[in-house]
Amino acid sequence: MRAAVVTTFGGPESVEIAEVPVPEPGARQVRIKVAAAAVNPVDAGVRAGVFGGAGKRLGLGWDVAGVVDAAGVASGWAVGDEVVALAYGTAKAVGTHAEYVVVDVDAVAAAPRSVDPAHAATLPLNALTAAQALDALALEAGRSLLVTGAAGAVGGYAVELAAGRGLVVTGLAREGDERLVRSLGAERFVSGPVAPGSVDAVLDAAIVGADALEWVRDGGAFVGVIPGAHPASVRGVRTGSVEVAADGARLAELVALVDRGALTTRVARTYPLDEAAKAHARLAEGGLRGRLVLVP
Fold it and tell me: Does the pTM of the predicted model rise above 0.90?
């Protein structure tokens, strides 16, 4: 089968399409015939060598939407089931940017019925990250939350999920994104300076860092989306960061929100799998509103 891999670190040109063996599922695993797979910044990080692995063949891709093609013992899934899943890991030999991928059953959920596979493929990594970041903040309804990068993939999901929890959401994004961010549920919008200590918490999807910490009131909370990269606590502000975890049960809850119209999936553009390098080049240009998605 074909798969997008990296054998030498570098820019988008480092992404290769290789012929690799079709993976076989073990116990409590399923093989998914990939219908669509999103391209995320973490894929660019793997490609560039941020996570190490020199000298190895590294598979790209974390998100997948597709159809169960084979199931191991005690998988709980049947051939033909339409699913979404998160294939966690920066050192996989084969990722979801391939024709087939094997994942653990605990990472799998039934696919949304209301959107196509390309849109469904934008859900697992980004929505799970947003949901798990909100869990870490542990805010009560009525509290104020500022989401940085509110028009981005993680930030957009965070705005919707936070609004759904009854939080008073301020979205920080570019000036031209105000209509979008408000449509996602933000009561307030900012594109410039934020007053120090003006919110109960920050979810830092745009990786602003220490500057965003200053916007949190004394004793508030701050959560980032790059593991271990959050600023140190000051003024009694609780700080932390999330490392996304594959969670099929939680993913199923997010799928249900999509099907209820309470969570918005966004695709910026699709590319054939063979044009994975072009997708990486477009990702590097920035300014996307929605995810790039590869279609085998």
Answer: yes
Candidate CATH numbers 3.40.50.10700, 1.10.10.60, 3.40.50.20, 3.40.50.720; the one for domain 126-241: 3.40.50.720
What percent of the chain shows pLDDT beyond 70?
100
Could you report the per-residue pLDDT of 5-51, keeping only the tens digit for each? 999 999 999 999 999 999 999 999 999 999 999 999 999 999 999 99
pLDDT tens track for 83-131: 999 999 999 999 999 999 999 999 999 999 999 999 999 999 999 999 9
May I ask the CATH architecture of the domain 2-123+265-295? Alpha-Beta Complex (3.90)
Give the integer Cα–Cα distance in Å for 38 and 57: 20
Q: Domain spans of the chain?
A: 2-123+265-295, 126-241
